[in-house]
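# nightly structure sweep
# worker-07 picked up a monomer target from the shared queue
# config: single-sequence mode, recycle default, output format = structure tokens
# input follows
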Amino acid sequence: MTESHAQELPRPLLLSAGILVLASILLVVVGDELPQTDPGSAAYVVSSHEVRLHTLEDGSVVPVLTDGTRLTAIAADKSGFVTGVIRGLSRGRKLSGADPDAPYRLSRMRDGRLLITDTTTGTSINLDVFGTDNARIFADIWQQGEANASARNR
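# output follows
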């Protein structure tokens, strides 16, 4: 480059960039040392229900609460997402040698999120990240669990 084509960056811009880099590093170091609470911990759970999800030959899924209460079946044409979640969690169970028939836990969090947790492996999935239509299917199961629990408590 010749001297006439050389461009210098403004000194305030370089100083600002350096401060930004240092602040980022400081936040990472300090943030790791702060006490953190698991967002899936009981302190954040509003309500949860343990449910077994049985896939039938026709592709529909029948949720059954651990007390034996059968909930409304999910039709085969609407059960694709549920089946995919079950398949993924079942794979984790198989790899860890866990009980394949153990229930899953559906938990409504204080901030409104809905989680499904594999009770054998501890794997949790935030269902809301898959979109409202997909999460609604599991939310309906959770809601039926709520209605069942309130009917039992009367």
